[in-house]
Amino acid sequence: MTAVAARPRAAMSEQALAELKALLGDRLSTAAAVREQHGKDESYHAVEAPDAVAFALSTEEVSAVVKVCARHKLPVVPFGTGTSLEGGVGALAGGVCIDVSGMKEVLRVSTDDLDVTVQAGVTRKQLNEHLRDTGLFFPIDPGADASLGGMSATRASGTNAVRYGTMRENVLGLTVVLADGRIIRTGGRARKSAAGYDLTRLFVGSEGTLGVITEVTLRLYGIPEAISSAVCAFTDIRGAVDTVIQTIQAGIPVARIELLDEVQMGAVNRYSKLSYAEAPTLFFEFHGTSAGVQEQAEMVSALAAENGGMDFQWATRAEERNALWTARHNAYYAALALRPGSRGWPTDVCVPISRLADCIIETKRDLAQSTLLAPLVGHVGDGNFHLVYVIDPDRPEEMAEAKRLNDRMVDRALAMGGTCTGEHGVGYGKIEFLAKEAGNAYAVMGELKRAFDPDNLMNPGKVVRL
Amino acid sequence: MTAVAARPRAAMSEQALAELKALLGDRLSTAAAVREQHGKDESYHAVEAPDAVAFALSTEEVSAVVKVCARHKLPVVPFGTGTSLEGGVGALAGGVCIDVSGMKEVLRVSTDDLDVTVQAGVTRKQLNEHLRDTGLFFPIDPGADASLGGMSATRASGTNAVRYGTMRENVLGLTVVLADGRIIRTGGRARKSAAGYDLTRLFVGSEGTLGVITEVTLRLYGIPEAISSAVCAFTDIRGAVDTVIQTIQAGIPVARIELLDEVQMGAVNRYSKLSYAEAPTLFFEFHGTSAGVQEQAEMVSALAAENGGMDFQWATRAEERNALWTARHNAYYAALALRPGSRGWPTDVCVPISRLADCIIETKRDLAQSTLLAPLVGHVGDGNFHLVYVIDPDRPEEMAEAKRLNDRMVDRALAMGGTCTGEHGVGYGKIEFLAKEAGNAYAVMGELKRAFDPDNLMNPGKVVRL
């Protein structure tokens, strides 16, 4: 791991530690291994260990911990599963990590209203397991089996967003502990509301910097009558992206439409022992009635054929579909397996779909002139794609080259009307990009942060720098 | 009009007036008729005239006006079409009304990306007229031909929300003038983003209390290949509502599903010279492929038959559909026509759909024991319904009775997990309800307001009371 510049760390007094111990007993840890594990996420970012880890079991406990921290001016860093990608869990200024992974209760399911309330530590897979006999499911799927609190905090999305939206569209309400320990409930269970400021959407995507999310109310969906998948390789990447654009423009309600480039397809073949063509490839999923999914697949198949699609393979059997999506889901690990011992630096721009082909082609041209290995996957129905730089973070020249290419790609995306992050969030890895993207609205974000957290104790150093 | 309690009004100095005149010339008016017209909306709320009306033509002009107001500590009240229903445009503390209805430019349309940027004064009908040859449309339809700035500011929705969402889901970005005159751009053109705090959603629904919206970037949709409508009367209201619930639970992607009760159907018949059954009635619209809309209509027809639907009439011809929806659109005016010279007090609760039948039936039971006339219409796919109290605001006993019934209905909706306003907003008519609904999150809304508007000059007295 490369060292990061030393930052001022709050001293954690014996008194503060004693107060937290009194609250949590054994569920407060200062063991080095526990602190280290809580100071790193799934990306290349260096470990930034907190001074202590508090394993909270309820909203009230989170509130009590936050109150102790507020009194002692200690930073608070929420932790779900540690699967963030922009250093969201790093304790840049030390302090107390609040691990909510023990808050695993599904508090309420309403099959009639298609909604559910969960504690923040419930993961998306746990929720779907819980829902198994109800005929309902929660669609948002960022790949990792992340906690729903963490997914809310980073405004996560993933493969299903083109049809079902992101966490922004699917969180109905939240319970949040504010910087002074107050507990508030935002939103509600009505499907729409015009009642005051949209605090729910303010906390969704705030990455723990405005408060700690402890409970989440989510929309659910009926499992479709029919689900089918398809895979289609293309002669070139523009043909694949043009198929995506035309599909979206035609209003075909695809549930998933994912691009993997030829490098990623090679990685997937090796990792999952498959034999797909090593060419730019689209993976599709269709949800609807039996007649509906067939109609969707036929429409998309026709568009693919016009754009250089080589062989549109339609899979309706559950095993076929699962094999296909398992291969897609393992893309990140398949990429890392290309170089044993490496780590991944996943990029995350999102552009208006009319610019997607240009953005991808120019980015790959840049990459072709570099020595870095970087497979590409994309949630292309939303205009969002990722490169994964497969790197050794101990080699400064690789880090510098990845940074140079990433800077160029983000500038390219912003020039095309896009965003520096479609779904991974800002953390501390993208603050400069956010400042560039938001213009003078960045200062307003800082003012908002100060209003909610005047002492800058809630996940300090993330999203905005004060 | 009933008089409202006198409020402290900022004195508008000659100096402030002179500065605004210098900026706007003839486009600053202090004429009594102009001020009166800008102090009232479409509801029963009393006129609250501003001291002056500024007809702005650009974001920069709005900013310049706001700066003058900030310097002289004058309230600022934005005005679009004056079609709000909770007193949103009333100048409770005097000051300057900024009328953006002259900001009517469609700044940019991207047919490839399905988005558009408009000035705040463009109305939804004007936008759809502009889009006529593109094959695209903007679906959000609150009934009135409101401005898109105003629709954003109140988080409007209406008949299409069950399929296309509300303004919350369809505003991609905004240009906003803040209380100190700064101009910021929020959001962007990417279909999703995790880049920092969601300022866009914070301003959507803020009703002019955090800033003045001057430009709006919106999602557009392809006009569906096929559109069909249907109408079906039911033996009782529970059967109608159960049909709605089952339709939503089955995931049938209806574009519109509207309930009119027997009183409203009578009003519609008289107003539009029609001969529908005077029974609880559902109006449907289906969007999709030809096969898709037929499949949807058949599924809904089967559900209606199981729930006491009497005669499911399917209309595919454009003239038939237009006649049907014109009747629905005129429901408010049809209600008022039941009593010439009356005004409407439209209510607006929204509950989880499993509670919708109970909420409606209990509300109608209350109403049956009152002398007030109040037809019912509902965007029932979202759990949202409106009574329109047809009243004479000069009769205090009617106002008191409407208030008593409305208080009971809002309490009922809140007890069922609902909201005091599905789409009309808070204005100053619903602040007490919002405080009750939001609990201690209401105080947080106040803190947010103070952070954005420390002098309480932006549409003061609305949403939150400081």
Structure report:
Chain A is 37% helix and 19% strand. The first copy, chain A, is an alpha+beta fold and 466 residues long. Chain A folds into four domains: 14-100, Uridine Diphospho-n-acetylenolpyruvylglucosamine Reductase, domain 2 (2-Layer Sandwich); 106-222, 2-Layer Sandwich (Uridine Diphospho-n-acetylenolpyruvylglucosamine Reductase, domain 3), CATH 3.30.465; 226-422, FAD-linked oxidases, C-terminal domain (Vanillyl-alcohol Oxidase, Chain A, domain 3), CATH 3.40.462.10; 430-466. In chain A, the strands form four sheets. In chain A, strands 15-12-14-13-17-18-16 form a seven-stranded antiparallel β-sheet, sandwiched between helices. In chain A, a hairpin with a 4-residue loop joins strand 5 and strand 6 (115-119). Chain A is globular, with a radius of gyration of 22 Å. The interface between A and B is large, with 90 and 90 residues.
In short:
The first copy, chain A, is an alpha+beta fold and 466 residues long. Chain A has helices at 14-24, 32-38, 59-72, 124-130, 148-153, 161-164, 167-170, 199-203, 237-249, 262-272, 290-306, 318-329, 331-337, 356-368, 396-415, 431-438, 441-452; strands at residues 28-29, 52-55, 76-79, 96-99, 106-110, 115-119, 136-137, 171-177, 183-187, 212-219, 221-222, 226-233, 256-260, 281-288, 313-315, 343-346, 376-379, 384-391. In chain A, the strands form four sheets. Chain A has a seven-stranded antiparallel beta sheet, sandwiched between helices. The first copy, chain A, has a five-stranded antiparallel beta sheet with strand order 5-6-10-8-9.
